[in-house]
Amino acid sequence: MTMRTKKLLTYTGLILIALTYWRCSVPSILQKKENKKLPADYYSSTDTLNTATIKWKEFFTDPYLTSLIDTALRNNQELNIILQEINIANNEVRARKAAYLPFVNIGGGAGFDKMGRYTRLGAVDATTNISQGKQIPEVLPDYMVAANISWEVDIWKKLRNSRKSAIYSYLATTAGKNFMVTHLVAEIANSFYELMALDNQLYILKQNIKILQNALEIVKLQKKSARVTELAVRRFEAEVMKNQSHIYLIQQSIVETENRINFLVGRFPKRVARNSWTFIEIVPDSIHAGIPSQLLQNRPDIRQAEFGLIAANLDVKVAKMYFYPSLNITGAIGFDAFNPTYLVSKPESMMYNLGAGLFGPLINRNAIKATYYSASARQIQAAFNYERTILTAYIEVANQLANINNMKKSYEKRANQVQTLTESIAISTKLFKSARADYMEVLFTQRDALDSKFELIETKKMQMNAMVNIYQALGGGWN
Where are the domains of the chain? Predict the structure, then answer.
């Protein structure tokens, strides 16, 4: 066995011993496996049709509403901020991809040095017999033009896993943008229906004031004929003023709701175009909730949590690889001479070097351990967040399905109540004129009728909100 072979075996053995040490010295950590299990259905429904697959332009048919949503998707500032986050995440992917490729740079340099005569190099230069004109100058210039290379060989897939983590972080950011879109669409739709409801309430209030004013004139005439007292007149006047005061509260709510929509659309305050007179006649579309497992694909927040969990798992692998040695290769090639005219001389002025090193942490690895433990903690967080997001999604859908059913029944009862009380107004007014009913009965009947109409409008708004919210909860609006 030759000496070279013995040295090679010795070095190989040392490297294997070092690798074994590094592998065995990696501390143990906790990691959590996510639970993706969902119930098989919602309230025993096995219908696989899913409203979430309907595009928002088809789900919302009001042209004024679709125009607002379309404008918001272009101009909403928060959404545009998230779009820049996507660009940042994409650039991070590009940066991490470049990290496991060789780094090559080219450049030049110039300088000089003078060695002391009573040094080893100075004494050698002084005693070396070199022909006239070729002596090494006492002040030695140095001119160099060279290309340098450095490359960390990704033997443990540390850099590749880091790039994959960045890719899944990018996908999580994209899913986050989609989740923001579903929120934006739903918020504009809910605010739009609220605005229509306020318009209807304002109209009903004004109509009620006219009825009260007519009743007030009747009471004034009856006071002149001594059929009622001044108290009846005052009570009706107070009721008229109470309703007139309520007008300004509704008008303020209209202004604030319009400006909320304007903010979401990304513009300064202006009137929001709408046709509110058809609001009470709107019939909510039938909703198909599908099966719970479809949430895993349709809900952007679940996709975001899933991508975040994958990225967290990869980050743990990356953090673990820092306990292992890294293989670095460095080299350079170019021209080097003490006289610029010699730089073009080949091969005399040509220089090159190539080297490799295997380096790993041995002592004081606390920083690496801290990073590793933090990555483990973030992975556990991501797993819990994923499970929480799935649970939240299922509960939101279940709540809104029940809400739709209950609001439908509530609206039917409210409509019957409004019809009954509206008929009671005419009856009470007729009885009052014929002195067969007290003025308080008329007043209370009109007050109850107004309240019931307001409640009917509010129930219709809640019914429309339930339709919007179930669409969002199922994951609709972003596609």
Answer: 30-101+156-324+366-473
Residue 219, CB-side half-sphere exposure with 13 Å CA sphere:
25
Q: What is the DSSP letter of 227?
A: S
Q: Which CATH superfamily is domain 30-101+156-324+366-473 in?
A: Outer membrane efflux proteins (OEP) (1.20.1600.10)
DSSP conformation letters of 128-189: ----TT-SPPSSEEEEEEEEEEEEEE-TTSHHHHHHHHHHHHHHHHHHHHHHHHHHHHHHHH
> For the whole model, what pTM was predicted?
0.83
Nearest to 336 by CA among 104, 107, 120, 126: 107
Q: How many helices (H) and strands (E) does the chain have?
A: 11, 4
The answer for residues whose C-beta is within 8 angstroms of residue 165's C-beta and 6 or more apart is 96, 311, 314, 315, 318
pLDDT tens sequence across 251-307 = 999 999 999 999 999 999 999 999 999 898 888 888 889 999 999 999 999 999 999
Q: Give residue-wise pLDDT tens across range 204-230.
A: 888 888 877 877 777 777 777 776 677
**For residue 234, how many other CB atoms are within 10 A of its CB?**
11
Burial class (CB in 10 A: 0-12, 13-18, 19+), 477: buried
Q: Of 39, 34, 42, 112, give the one whose Cα is nearest residue 397.
A: 42
Q: How far apart are CA 394 and CA 391, in angstroms?
A: 5
**What does the mean pLDDT of the chain come to?**
85
* Closest of 250, 84, 265 to residue 187, by C-alpha: 265
What the block records as the tokens of 362 is 């041995």
Q: Measure the CA–CA gap between 459 and 35, rounded to whole angstroms.
A: 38
Burial label, 110 (beta-carbon count in 10 A; 0-12, 13-18, 19+): exposed
Cα–Cα distance for residue pair 340/110, rounded to 1 Å: 10
Mean pLDDT across 86-95: 91
